[in-house]
UniProtKB/TrEMBL annotation, chain A:
<protein>
    <submittedName>
        <fullName>Zinc transport system ATP-binding protein</fullName>
    </submittedName>
</protein>
<dbReference type="Pfam" id="PF00005">
    <property type="entry name" value="ABC_tran"/>
</dbReference>
<keyword id="KW-0813">Transport</keyword>
<dbReference type="InterPro" id="IPR003593">
    <property type="entry name" value="AAA+_ATPase"/>
</dbReference>
<dbReference type="InterPro" id="IPR017871">
    <property type="entry name" value="ABC_transporter-like_CS"/>
</dbReference>
<dbReference type="InterPro" id="IPR003439">
    <property type="entry name" value="ABC_transporter-like_ATP-bd"/>
</dbReference>
<dbReference type="InterPro" id="IPR050153">
    <property type="entry name" value="Metal_Ion_Import_ABC"/>
</dbReference>
<dbReference type="GO" id="GO:0005524">
    <property type="term" value="F:ATP binding"/>
</dbReference>
<feature type="domain" description="ABC transporter">
    <location>
        <begin position="5"/>
        <end position="234"/>
    </location>
</feature>
From TrEMBL, chain B:
<dbReference type="GO" id="GO:0043190">
    <property type="term" value="C:ATP-binding cassette (ABC) transporter complex"/>
</dbReference>
<feature type="transmembrane region" description="Helical">
    <location>
        <begin position="135"/>
        <end position="153"/>
    </location>
</feature>
<dbReference type="Pfam" id="PF00950">
    <property type="entry name" value="ABC-3"/>
</dbReference>
<feature type="transmembrane region" description="Helical">
    <location>
        <begin position="95"/>
        <end position="115"/>
    </location>
</feature>
<feature type="transmembrane region" description="Helical">
    <location>
        <begin position="12"/>
        <end position="34"/>
    </location>
</feature>
<feature type="transmembrane region" description="Helical">
    <location>
        <begin position="248"/>
        <end position="265"/>
    </location>
</feature>
<keyword id="KW-0812">Transmembrane</keyword>
<keyword id="KW-0813">Transport</keyword>
<keyword id="KW-0472">Membrane</keyword>
Length: 248, 270
């Protein structure tokens, strides 16, 4: 089976200055890929390239045939720090803005409205639909943005540091939800803290200047060192392994 | 009350009233956008840069508002260019255009032979001297703004809220940004006659702050801002007439009083 997204020899960055060099990666249906790596290593840059926000300087990103529409079927949950919490926008409108990712031909206002309602209910945020985005707790905001990402029926769901929305108590809830969603779509989860995710993800990619793919969710310190990935691993028994950020 | 109604028998007052209505709608909507998007400082830069155009128009003897439009649009593009292409920090490039426009204006006015009697009304506004042709232009601007926001409301909202997401979705974000910055420039210039260059930022921010006390919904905020702008402008107009004080300053003062009272009301009763 072909990969949904195939990245070949990709170099990408800002102002003619590549942040990532010669990245090769394939994302298949039902993948659950954890992208780890140090801050500034290029995790977000990789996402931006996949989302089409950055043009490749070298190499290419090939989408599978059924992904090649004007608007790619990709759901995207941004980092919480990129959200202007004082912006006068309601929960309902944030979720509905997900319709931007739908292809114009497919937009049927009634259907969009129904899908918004369904998602709000499904994620348990229906009762706060008229609240301003700034009035929400981290967990609520995370669910609202997940609704937005899911509105366009994506084949791939990309989450950029979703754990920064909430404290540890709510993290498990998110990952259980993602596990369910993973039955219908590929998931790419970026995190600088793989501690909690490694038992949920199926595969791991370490991004630092380049990308090292690891075809399961167990990764050893030796491997990370040889990948030039400055992340510290703490191992608790057998599986799941826990990978933590290096202590300062 | 009969006094108030009698005022409408005066031609100048009817024109001032219409100017207040048009200014409130355009500044309410555009200001709501500016405040939400946190580009108040950019708007301030464009506003003050337009003084250069007014000075040039005095010197060469053409319509000052035309000169203002020229400089406003030029500075809007100039700020973009400095920031994106020349990599000057955005706040610095705003300040450069802001002061450059003012400096050129002062030089041009200085070079203009004789006395420039209207200068004060451009700096501080005089809603009582608005002309018919200015009213026509204000009306056209209002129609354009209302149509633009009505047709593209959700696109404008979604781009303003999360530009990156809109870009990822393939929306023509840059085009929308250029269109909105042009509308900002035009709004600023056409409302200069109402409250003046120095004070126009207030019509773009104070009614919005007041509206923000009551709603966090973009659509309602635009409408409420226009309403509060109208209340403030009209009351200011009456104060200026009865107390015989400059209209621009009276309007701003009223806007601030309304904000302060409602803010206090909210503090104590909600």
């Amino acid at each position: 089976m072909d990969a949904l997204i195939k990245i070949e020899n990709l170099s990408v960055g800002y102002d003619k200055q590549p942040v990532l060099h010669n990245v090769n990666l394939e994302i298949f249906e039902n993948d659950f890929l954890g992208v780890i790596g140090p801050n500034g290593g290029g995790k977000t840059t990789l996402l931006k390239a996949i989302l089409g926000l950055l043009k490749p300087m070298k190499g290419k990103i090939i989408f599978r045939e059924d992904m090649r529409m004007k608007k790619k079927p990709i759901g995207y949950l941004p980092q919480v720090k990129h959200i202007d919490k004082n912006f006068p926008i309601t929960v309902y409108e944030v979720v509905r803005s997900g319709s931007l990712m739908k292809n114009p031909k497919k937009i049927n206002t009634r259907e969009v409205k129904q899908k918004v309602e369904w998602l709000l209910t499904e994620m348990g945020v229906s009762d706060i639909r008229d609240k301003a985005i700034g009035e929400l707790s981290g967990g609520q905001m995370q669910r609202v943005f997940l609704c937005r990402a899911l509105l366009s029926d994506p084949k791939i769901l990309i989450l950029d540091e979703p754990d920064t929305f909430v404290d540890n108590r709510f993290e498990g809830e998110l990952y259980e939800r993602l596990k369910m969603l993973n039955q219908e779509m590929a998931i790419v989860l970026v995190s600088h803290d793989v501690g909690t995710i490694s038992s949920y993800v199926k595969t791991i990619a370490c991004v630092n200047d380049s990308l090292h793919y690891h075809p399961d969710n167990i990764i050893t310190q030796d491997q990370l060192d040889s990948y030039n990935c400055p992340i510290k691993i703490i191992t608790h028994g057998e599986i799941p392994h826990t990978v933590l950020k290096r202590h300062e | 009350m009969s006094n108030l109604i009698e005022l409408f028998a005066y031609d100048f007052f009817v024109k001032a009233f219409l100017a207040a209505v048009f200014a409130s709608i355009s500044c309410g909507i555009i200001g709501g956008y500016i405040v939400s998007r946190r580009i108040v400082f950019v708007s301030g830069g464009i506003t003050h840069a337009s003084f250069g155009g007014i000075g040039l128009a005095f010197l060469l003897g053409f319509n000052p508002l035309l000169g203002a439009v020229l400089f406003a649009v030029m500075s809007a593009l100039g700020i973009q260019f400095f920031t994106k292409v020349a990599h000057v920090r955005e706040d610095s490039s705003i300040a450069i255009w802001w002061s450059l426009g003012m400096a050129l204006g002062i030089i041009f006015v200085f070079l203009t032979p004789g006395y420039t009697p209207n200068l004060m009304s451009y700096l501080f506004g005089n809603i009582l001297t608005v002309t018919i042709s200015e009213l026509v232009w204000m009306f056209i601007l209002n129609v354009v703004i209302i149509l633009f926001f009505a047709f593209y409301f959700r696109k404008i909202l979604y781009i303003a809220f999360d530009e990156e997401f809109a870009r990822a979705a393939g929306l023509p974000v840059s085009l929308f940004n250029y269109l909105t910055i042009t509308l900002i420039a035009l709004t600023v210039v056409l409302n200069i006659r109402v409250v003046g260059i120095i004070l126009i930022l207030s019509l773009l921010t104070i009614p919005q702050a007041t509206a923000n006390l009551f709603t966090k919904d973009f659509r309602k905020m635009l409408v409420l801002s226009s309403v509060f702008a109208f209340i403030g402008t009209i009351s200011g107009l009456f104060f200026s007439y009865y107390l015989d004080i400059p209209s621009g300053a009276a309007i701003i003062f009223t806007l601030v009083i309304i904000f302060a009272l409602l803010r206090l009301y909210k503090h104590f009763f909600k």
